[in-house]
Amino acid sequence: MHSDIRVCSNWEHAHERPVYTLGDRCPKCDAPAENSAPPPFDPTDRYGEYRRRARPDGPD
Question: Where is this region: Disordered (predicted)?
Answer without folding.
Answer: 29-60
